[in-house]
Amino acid sequence: MARNTEPAGSLPRGIAVSGEEQGELTRRAYAEPAHVYRTPFARDAARVLHARAFRRLAGKTQVFTRLPGDPLNDHFRSRLTHTLEVTQISRTLASALGLNIELAEALALAHDIGHPPFGHAGEKALDQALQVHGLSFDHNLHALRIVTWFEERYPAFRGLNLTLGVREGIIKHSRDYSAAAHPELAEYFLNEFPPLEAQLIDLADEIAYLTADLDDGLNSGILALEQVHAGVPFFRGFHDAALHNLPNAAPRLAVYDALRRMLNAFVSDLLNEVRARVAVLEARTLADIRRAPARLAGFSEEMETIRISTKKFLYDNLYNSRDMEDVHRHAEQVVLDLFAAFMADPNLMPKDHQAQIPSEGLIRTTTDYIAGMTDSYIEQLWARCRA
Ligand code: MG
């Protein structure tokens, strides 16, 4: 049923991406008949969810792969559970602002699909291996490659044949690409900002991991509660309030209460700030968002300061902590060793990957293979190659 009135808090209706079958952004590279009762973006969200690359997120590191001392714990986020948390936050944001929820969902589900094993350490190592050949690794561009080429699900074409809007959002949700440096991306409106549905994904990602990584960091024992109190006053405020208001709650539940309120504060601030920026600009249409002087999705100045300092705390005390150094060194070695091994002897790769060498080249094929691996798969291969 068409909405006649916009719910309170919604942005002007023309700002949301149209999900109509004939919309500019619902075009597909290969024409397909419309579905009887599913919209193009809902179909795209389902295509991502059913992709093999999506299932492999379950076996990829978010922050922790193996922890120093390997404590028995299966509650840490994987890239899959992180992705689902980002999806939940993205849906909330899109819904509260009256944006296209199905587009936001498809983009959130796809946002980490191009990540190699071993989290950022794996990404850095893969990039290092490619730099030697004058190339680089970019997980957004790799995600585009997965959905446009690498996934094989249909007899008529390679890739998932996603709509233009989802492909644009996959590459542009977290950064902009210059048209001069990337002529191959010409169809993705490189001189314009992406729609708000895409811009919000990067912030939903930040909100999800800033709170979840404090949780996992505390849970792992790498972060101590006193340390988080000292380093993240924003958390401390909520935690002190929880201890005061819930004096009989188990310590763990007071931490959850604080993290929940922290997440909620980030989301509420973001919603208010986006509404305010849209109002100041008097934006009414998607074109206004695309041609705005800057990206419109962002936190208030005060919350941005909190976001940056929380992130810095996590980098200094968790991601780059002494405890994680060995884990990162190991990840780097595994990726570099295997890259070199496949380059020296392509027969070590499975037949279906070898078959891609003539069209894609050895370097690209090796990158595709390694980037797709889960943490446990790459560990086992590495052990086998060394045996
Ligand atoms: Mg992410």
- Class by SSE composition: mainly alpha
CATH class identity: Mainly Alpha
Find the CATH superfamily: Hypothetical protein af1432
CATH architectural grouping: Orthogonal Bundle
Helix content: 55-70%
Radius of gyration: 22 Å
Terminal residue distance: 63 Å
Q: Which hetero ligands occur in this complex?
A: magnesium ion
Oligomeric nature of the chains: single chain
- Helix-strand string: HHHHHHHHHHHHHHHHHH
Instruction: Report the average pLDDT across residues.
Output: 94
Molecular shape: globular
Explain briefly what this protein structure is.
The protein has a single domain (21-386), classed as Hypothetical protein af1432.
